[in-house]
Design brief:
This protein is of the alpha+beta class. Among the domains are: 65 residues, no CATH class; 276 residues, no CATH class. The protein has 19 helices and eleven strands. The longest helix is centred in the last third of the chain and has 39 residues. About 1% of the residues have low confidence.
C-alpha cells in the first residue's frame, strides 16, 4: 500500500538552514528537497513577521501556569487585563522579566535566611554606637567550635544558636582588635524588611505571569494574522519576477512526510517556531513513495525497487509480486530437496551480517520451493511418486502426469499465466477507474470483462457445471457487453467512428500480445523440467559410478559426484528461477496492469547512530 503524504513548504532566511535541517534530522520522517526564491524588502518583512508570530504562538502554546501554587490568583488577575500592545513585541519582554524576577526572589530568599539569624535590630542605635567609637563585629561558627571563654577576651553577645551554628557579635573600641574567628559581613537590613521586599517581587512576578496568561487569549487572533500573511506571501512569491530579486535569498525547503505524522510534526514545528505551509500531497507534487507492507510482503519490496517504485497515483505491486514471484520461483526450481537446501542456506545467512537482510526472503523461497516440489513430486531429481512410504494425503496433492491430454506441468504453467494476466487486467481497470473515472475507463473494463469473464466461464464450463447451450449464451452476452466498451465507448469524448477504429487497432495489438504473453509462462514448465532432468542425470551418473554398491570405495566418488552435480544444478536453477519470474512480473504483469513504476523512493532525513 502506498502511504498518503503531506507536503510541507518551509521558508527560512539564509543562514538558518543548518539548525533547521538538524531539527528535521532528529524528527527522522521528513523527505526534504531545496529550492530558492527571490526576496525583497516587502517579502523579508512578511517573513520576519510570520517567523515572529510562529515563535510567539509556539511558546504561548506551551506556557502553562496550572501547576503554579498561585495559579488561581494568576487566572483571576489575567481576566482583568486588557492587552492593547502587540503580543509579539511584549511577550519576549515578559518572559525576560519573569526569568529575572524569579532569580531575584531566589536570591532574596537566601538573603532572608541569613538575615533571620540576626533578628530585629535598630539601625539608628547601632549608628550611635559607632559615633561613640564602638564597633560591632559579626561572626558565625560551628556550635562545636564556639568557646565560652571568648567572653573574657571582648564583650560578646550571642544572637542565635541552632544545632549546628552559633551567630554572635562583639563590641570593642580597640582599633588593634584581634579575635580567633574570621569576621563576616554585617547585615544591611533585617529579615523582616527583606521579607517585605520578597512580597513586592512576588506581586510583580504574578502580574507578569497574569499578563502572559492574558496573551493566551490573543492566540486565535495571532493565528488568523499568521494565516493571512502566509497567504499574501505565498501569492507574492508566485507573482514576483526574477528581476525583483535582491542579493539575499529566501531558502525554500519542500518536504514530504506520511499523513500519520501530521500531529507530531505540527507540535514540533510550532514549538520550534518554524514557518511552514502544509498541504495534502497530490500527484503533481511528485511526492516520494513510502510503501506499507506486512511482514510477508515486505520481504519482496526489494524486487519492486529493482523495477521502480509506483507513482503516487499507481498501485503498490509488492503484494502481487510476493505471491506470484514466490510461486514462479518455486515452479522453476521444482524440487522439494532444493527447497530444503534453500531453507538451510537462509537460516545460515541470518548469522551473517552481510546477508542477514536477505535471509528471510531466501527461507521463504525455500519453503515455497519445498511445497511446490512436493506437488511436482521431485526430490533431488528423484520422482517421489515411486516412494511407497509417503502418506496418502501427500500422494493426493501430487500433480498427475497428464491433464487435458497434455503434460500436467505444462497445463499448470499455462493456467498460472492466465490467472496472472487476469489479475493484471483487473488491477488495470480498478486503477483506471480511480484515476480517470468510470466513464473514461469503459474501454478498459470491456477488455477486462472479455478476458477475465471469458476465462472464468471457460474454466467453469470445463468442469461440466454449465451445459454447452448456457455457456454459449453467457459468452455471447459477455462478448456483446465487452464490444460496446471496446469499440463504442473506449473514449466517451470521441465520435463513434473514431472509437471503432481505435478499438480495432487495440484488438489487433491485444490479441497478438496476449497470445505471446500466455506462451511466455511455458518457461516455468521448461525450467522446472530442465532442472529435474539434469538432477536426474546426475543421479544416474552416480549410480553408474557406484555400480552394484558392493565396492565401498566407489561410494566416495559417487557422493562427490552427487554433491557437485546437485550443487551446480541448484545454482543454475536458482539463477533461472530468479531471472525468469522477475521477467514475467516486470514485463507480462506490469505491461497488462499499466504499471509504470516511475516514483521516487521516500528517503527522510535521519540521524545515523554509529
Amino acid at each position: 500500500m502506498i502511504e498518503k503524504m503531506s507536503k510541507y513548504s518551509f521558508i527560512l532566511l539564509k543562514g538558518e538552514e543548518t539548525g533547521f535541517l538538524a531539527r528535521l534530522q532528529e524528527l527522522g520522517v521528513v523527505d526534504i528537497t531545496r529550492s530558492s526564491k527571490p526576496v525583497d524588502e516587502r517579502s523579508a518583512q512578511m517573513l520576519a513577521r510570520i517567523s515572529s508570530l510562529g515563535t510567539t504562538l509556539g511558546k504561548l502554546s506551551v506556557s502553562d501556569f496550572s501547576k503554579d501554587p498561585d495559579y488561581e490568583t494568576i487566572l483571576e488577575e489575567s481576566k482583568r487585563i486588557e492587552v492593547k500592545d502587540d503580543p509579539v513585541a511584549i511577550y519576549p519582554e515578559l518572559v525576560s522579566q519573569i526569568r529575572e524576577l524569579a532569580a531575584e526572589i531566589s536570591a532574596a530568599e537566601k538573603e532572608k535566611d541569613y538575615l533571620d539569624h540576626w533578628g530585629r535590630f535598630d539601625k539608628e542605635s547601632l549608628s550611635k554606637l559607632g559615633e561613640m567609637g564602638l564597633k560591632i563585629r559579626y561572626y558565625s561558627v560551628p556550635a562545636k567550635k564556639f568557646d565560652a571563654e571568648w567572653t573574657n577576651l571582648v564583650p560578646l553577645k550571642e544572637i542565635y544558636r541552632d544545632d549546628s551554628t552559633v551567630w554572635f557579635v562583639t563590641v570593642s573600641d580597640d582599633p588593634e582588635y584581634s579575635f580567633p574567628v574570621k569576621e563576616i559581613h554585617a547585615p544591611e537590613t533585617t529579615g523582616a524588611e527583606k521579607g517585605e521586599e520578597i512580597k513586592a517581587l512576588r506581586k510583580e512576578l504574578l502580574s507578569a505571569k497574569a499578563m502572559v496568561q492574558a496573551l493566551k487569549s490573543r492566540v486565535p487572533e495571532l493565528e488568523a494574522e499568521k494565516k493571512a500573511i502566509t497567504a499574501d506571501m505565498d501569492m507574492y512569491f508566485a507573482e514576483v519576477s526574477p528581476e525583483k530579486a535582491a542579493e539575499d535569498h529566501v531558502l525554500v525547503f519542500e518536504g514530504f512526510a506520511p499523513i500519520e505524522e501530521d500531529e507530531r510534526l505540527k507540535e514540533a514545528f510550532d514549538k520550534q517556531g518554524i514557518f511552514y505551509i502544509k498541504d495534502t500531497a497530490v500527484l503533481e507534487d511528485n511526492p516520494p513513495i513510502k510503501l506499507k507492507n506486512n511482514g510477508f510482503t515486505s520481504q519482496f519490496r526489494v524486487l519492486t525497487d529493482m523495477y521502480g517504485r509506483p507513482s503516487y497515483d499507481e498501485f503498490d505491486p509488492t503484494p502481487m509480486i510476493s505471491i506470484f514471484f514466490l510461486l514462479f520461483f518455486a515452479m522453476c526450481m521444482g524440487d522439494a530437496g532444493y527447497g530444503l537446501i534453500l531453507i538451510i542456506v537462509g537460516l545460515l545467512m541470518k548469522r551473517s551480517k552481510g546477508f542477514a537482510s536477505m535471509a528471510s526472503l531466501v527461507v521463504t523461497l525455500g519453503i515455497g520451493t519445498l511445497l511446490v516440489g512436493i506437488v511436482l513430486h521431485t526430490f533431488f531429481g528423484i520422482d517421489m511418486k515411486e516412494w511407497a512410504f509417503l502418506p496418502s494425503w501427500m500422494q493426493k496433492v501430487m500433480l498427475p502426469t497428464q491433464a487435458l491430454g497434455f503434460d500436467a506441468g505444462m497445463v499448470l504453467a499455462i493456467i498460472v499465466g492466465i490467472v496472472h494476466i487476469c489479475v493484471a487486467q483487473v488491477v488495470k481497470s480498478i486503477m483506471s477507474t480511480r484515476n480517470k473515472g468510470f466513464l473514461n475507463s469503459l474501454g478498459t473494463w470491456g477488455w477486462t470483462l472479455l478476458i477475465v469473464g471469458g476465462v472464468t466461464v471457460g474454466g467453469i464450463a470445463l468442469t461440466g457445471v454449465l451445459d454447452a447451450r448456457l455457456t454459449k449464451w453467457i459468452i455471447i452476452i459477455l462478448g456483446s457487453l465487452s464490444a460496446v466498451g471496446i469499440f463504442l465507448l473506449n473514449d466517451v469524448r470521441r465520435n463513434v467512428f473514431a472509437n471503432i477504429g481505435a478499438g480495432l487497432w487495440e484488438t489487433y495489438n491485444t490479441a497478438s500480445g496476449l497470445l505471446g504473453d500466455v506462451l511466455s509462462y511455458l518457461r516455468l514448465y521448461a525450467l522446472g523440467l530442465a532442472g529435474a532432468m539434469l538432477g536426474g542425470a546426475f543421479n544416474q551418473l552416480g549410480e553408474m559410478v557406484l555400480g552394484d554398491g558392493k565396492n565401498l570405495f566407489l561410494w566416495i566418488p559417487c557422493i562427490i559426484l552427487f554433491l557437485l552435480g546437485h550443487t551446480l544444478n541448484i545454482a543454475m536453477c536458482a539463477l533461472g528461477a530468479f531471472v525468469h519470474p522477475l521477467r514475467l512480473n516486470f514485463l507480462e504483469f506490469f505491461k497488462n496492469s499499466g504499471y509504470a513504476g516511475k516514483g521516487r523512493t521516500y528517503k527522510p532525513l535521519e540521524q545515523i547512530n554509529n
